[in-house]
């Protein structure tokens, strides 16, 4: 039975931003460390149909969607917008805060368009821009937002799979800036994840995701026993739903919990490919069918959602 949460607020957003995949195509630059990508043929109509159905499904749940159009053919991965910004509401921080992040690849850095940022800025009191770290004089460093940062807002923890897209140096500065504006101090939980072939996993949000009371995670990808034990300890307040390497390749870790005003409860949004995993979660599962976007871009449902707190 799906549990309905009787409360007036949620640690999960009920508004999101999304960018259409108008120019999505296989990107050899990002394919270097994103092993979820394939060389599928590009079909604009299929991608747009998948995107539009995704948006419609969220709106059926009264989840607000801010839809931006990607005008730049040199930014093929723009539909995965969660990698360049994040937001915090006054539940977390003293003001409504917008963070802007550095990205690893030049083609992805193009995604931070001025008009998108200006649209976001209208709703936030403070903007903290860390994108300068991607400049050569600062080391060409990246911290790709909620691609690499998994927020446990219930316990003020941030889980991070360290990689070339999650620099420890930028992470240190980010935590300093976040704690300076937060009501409570946030704690980092870092680890190193590897896929079945032993290749470093580029983002945290393919490894794990959180619902109100469940942590969906591929623990087997954390090969260091000390790191794995620490992650498990820090998730002690959650029911751990373990997924396999195969489940991870089917995007079962790339999910996002949102609050549905229509249902008056949290829902978890995930790929239709996750159905066969039969995940036992604590809130209703909303499956979205986006196979073309996944095959071409190497990202899934969570990657396409920028939470607006």
């Amino acid at each position: 039975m799906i549990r309905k949460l009787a409360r007036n607020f949620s640690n999960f957003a009920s508004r999101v931003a999304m960018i259409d995949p108008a120019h999505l195509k296989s990107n050899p630059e990002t394919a270097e460390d994103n092993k979820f990508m394939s060389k599928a043929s590009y079909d604009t109509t299929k991608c747009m149909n998948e995107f539009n159905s995704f948006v419609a499904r969220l709106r059926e749940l009264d989840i607000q969607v801010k839809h931006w159009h990607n005008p730049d053919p040199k930014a093929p991965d723009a539909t995965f917008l969660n990698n360049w910004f994040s937001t915090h509401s006054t539940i977390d921080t003293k003001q409504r805060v917008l963070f802007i992040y550095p990205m690893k690849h030049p083609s992805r850095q193009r995604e931070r368009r001025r008009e998108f940022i200006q649209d976001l800025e209208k709703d936030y009191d403070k903007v903290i821009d860390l994108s300068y770290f991607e400049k050569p004089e600062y080391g060409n460093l990246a911290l790709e937002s909620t691609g690499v940062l998994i927020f446990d807002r219930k316990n003020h923890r941030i889980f991070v799979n360290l990689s070339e897209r999650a620099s420890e140096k930028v992470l240190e500065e980010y935590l300093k800036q976040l704690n300076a504006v937060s009501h409570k101090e946030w704690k980092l939980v870092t680890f190193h994840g590897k896929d079945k072939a032993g290749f470093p996993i580029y983002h945290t949000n393919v490894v794990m995701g959180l619902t109100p009371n469940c942590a969906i995670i591929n623990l087997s990808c954390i090969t260091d026993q000390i790191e794995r034990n620490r992650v498990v300890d820090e998730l002690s307040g959650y029911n751990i739903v373990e997924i396999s390497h195969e489940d991870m390749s089917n995007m079962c870790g790339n999910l996002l919990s949102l609050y549905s005003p229509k249902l008056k409860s949290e829902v978890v949004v995930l790929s239709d490919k996750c159905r066969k995993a039969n995940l036992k979660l604590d809130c209703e599962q909303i499956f979205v069918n986006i196979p073309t976007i996944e095959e071409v871009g190497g990202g899934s449902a969570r990657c396409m959602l920028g939470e607006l707190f």
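DSSP finds eight helices and 15 strands in the chain. The first strand starts at residue 15 and ends at 19.
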